[in-house]
Amino acid sequence: MCLAIPGKIIQITQQEKDNRLGKVNFAGVVKVVNLTYVPQADVGDYVTVHVGFALNVMDQHDAELVISHLNSVSEQNEAKLDKVRQRIQKRSGRS
Amino acid sequence: MIKYVSEFRNVQAVHKILKDLHGITKHSWSIMEICGGQTHALLRYGIDELLPKKITLLHGPGCPVCVTPLEKIDKAIYIARQSDVIFCSFGDMLRVPGSHLDLLSAKAEGADVRIVYSPMDALKIAGENPHRRVVFFAVGFETTVPAIAMTVHRAATLKMKNFYLLVSHVLVPPAIRALLAAPDNRVQGFLAAGHVCTVMGYEEYIAISKEFKIPIVVTGFEPYDLAMGIFMCVRQLENGTFKTENEYTRAVARQGNVLAQDLMHRVFKVVDRKWRGIGVIPQSGLDLNEHYAEFDAETAFNVHLEVQEPEECISGLVLQGVKKPFECSEFAKRCTPDHPLGATMVSTEGACAAYYRYKMIDGDKK
Fold this sequence. Notes:
The structure holds two protein chains of two kinds.
Chain A: E1 5-16, E2 19-26, E3 29-34, E4 46-50, E5 53-57, H1 60-71, H2 78-92
Antiparallel strand pairs in A: 1-2, 1-4, 2-3, 4-5
Helix pairs in contact in A: 1-2
Chain B: H1 11-24, E1 29-35, H2 36-44, H3 47-50, E2 55-62, H4 64-67, H5 70-80, E3 85-89, H6 103-108, E4 113-115, H7 119-128, E5 133-140, H8 145-157, E6 163-170, H9 172-181, E7 189-193, H10 194-200, H11 203-212, E8 216-219, H12 223-239, E9 244-246, H13 258-267, E10 268-275, E11 279-288, H14 297-300, H15 315-319, H16 343-346, H17 351-359, E12 360-361, E13 364-365
């Protein structure tokens, strides 16, 4: 039940402080999503959505770094992946 | 292809991590994934079968459908059968067996039971039906609570008088503590549920790691995430460390979503909660607090039940990682997804349903 899916905000449709809404594109399926918990999210951002609510703005830089590594993983080893992770964590202040 | 999902299903990368996992695994370890969604994904992608033989995955209680107590299902059915009620629920609650029947059967008998995607849909139905009482079945872990909190807060703002919640929310950290404190505990490391931590962050888990000297890895739901989460957990176990680490950095920050937590605390209070098959875990649930008590369906409908659970279903032991689904004498015999005896066979995230779906070939165990 705790599954949440990332989607891209394509339009902010309502800016009320307690009821911020926007249209979010999930690989072609567009749904209205409640964005009240992510006031910083804007058009172009990816948000993680669960039962109609965005729970966070995805750290795209982090995601892209891991993806770029995954794509070249056949030439790399786990230690290098760890280094990437450590760099990401230092940069984002996350441990 | 959903961006930021499909990339994390990179087969080569997953195989590389698992190969490295085989390289570092020297001892036998039992690791529990808390979340039923992760159980489902691990079996769906066959990751459990690619692990070193020394690694045992235990499947945890993180399936809200599975742990919702029997009396809540009975209460839901009682309320749904009232002639002026529209009863709204997430779809997977409808087939959970109560003492005598399930919500789907109540619907077949004429109750107005509706499946909704979001609690906000139920609030909309209430607005469109001012002469009916609309009740939403509020189940779920911390991932789902912010949506419910916002919905009831909105109902209060709109001064809705015909909208109610039947609340059965549960919290992950008290369940972890209860599992670790149990005398028959076998869990040596945890994969923490990624999306619960998206909301709550993971500072509470850091405290658990220290107190119980156990590694915890906040883990996502895609094959890469799961393989990496297990790798990070085993690496700690082999090194003798016990920290909380974050594998799912793209979606989880240490402090979580503070706005969501604030509204949760404004709307709900922490209470003792009965978990189906497990029993009461202290301070492990949420109920509406006094400011939002008027929306509480159990009070509004004056429904109070205590129900004994049947003894034949061992789902409680499965949910605690003490037994595997195959160890139940009724598994795939009298208990199947079409005719479940217990909730772990109903929910798609239940361990028994996942084993039935992914580990049975031609009626035999794979």
